[in-house]
Specification:
about 250 residues, mainly alpha, 11 helices
């Protein structure tokens, strides 16, 4: 098999230095484009500075939102303690303060996780204070922003409770829909799933379908076996209603 003959390099090619040529080309280019290179460098530096500033500001706002939420949560806990000790007036004042702080954080940091948590806390406090109209409005706004599933389910729960409290025919229908949506998306063993079933039980009781109400409560107890005072109260209410209206009791 014949060997291929290697092409001989000329003296001119031997004297070439590719690295030196590239450096010379860059040097020539920089001499003729000095202004453009300087402006480009300044633009890059400015962009880096702006990005660093924005990131720093974003981090500061995130910490501010977290601090505001935790403050509202702490005031709410104080309200609960004051209510338990019988200081009802101080408890109401603390509840109002917690609601105000949570609302401000939610308004100023709508798209941040701590702002959304503050909105949910504000809704919970609003329900306790009977501010159902404001809760309905704020939770509808939060849901319109399409937050993550966990936040959406919490918002649906607060919205459903507020609608249930307002009590119009359409309100009760919408509340039923919101509770049902939670069951479709919440994990099988989650607390919020049990709370949605409790809500459905209350709605069935209002409509007089005690068998369906008991079925929802049984489902809630399967999720959370701990029979709370609240669920015991609902079960007792159903039992009394069934005695008053035997035809509504389940046949079996």
């Amino acid at each position: 098999m014949a060997h291929r003959t290697r092409k001989r390099l000329t003296k001119q090619e031997l004297r070439r230095d590719p690295v030196a040529e590239r450096l010379y080309e860059w040097w020539s280019f920089s001499r003729t484009h000095t202004t453009q290179l300087i402006l480009g460098g300044v633009a890059v530096i400015a962009a880096i500075a702006v990005m660093s500033s924005l990131l720093g500001r974003s981090r500061a706002q995130e910490l501010e939102a977290m601090a505001g939420y935790l403050t509202a949560e702490l005031i709410y806990e104080q309200a609960e303690q004051q209510a338990a000790s019988g200081s009802s007036e101080q408890a109401v004042q603390a509840l109002q303060a917690a609601w105000t702080v949570a609302g401000e954080v939610a308004s100023q940091h709508r798209n941040r996780i701590w702002g959304r948590r503050a909105a949910l806390l504000s809704a919970r406090l609003g329900i306790l204070m009977g501010r159902n109209e404001e809760v309905i409005s704020s939770m509808q706004e939060l849901l319109a922003a399409q937050p993550p599933r966990e936040v959406s389910n919490q918002a649906r729960l607060h919205l459903a409770v507020a609608l249930e409290n307002r009590g119009g025919v359409e309100d009760l229908q919408n509340a039923y829909t919101r509770y049902s949506e939670i069951l479709e998306s919440a994990p099988p063993t989650s607390v919020i799933r049990a709370e949605a079933m409790e809500g459905l039980a209350r709605l069935e009781m209002r409509s007089g379908d005690y068998a369906a109400a008991r079925g929802w409560l049984d489902g809630a107890l399967e999720v959370l076996p701990d029979t709370s005072m609240y669920i015991r109260h609902l079960l007792t209410t159903i039992e009394w209603a069934e005695r008053e209206h035997p035809s509504a009791a389940p046949q079996g």
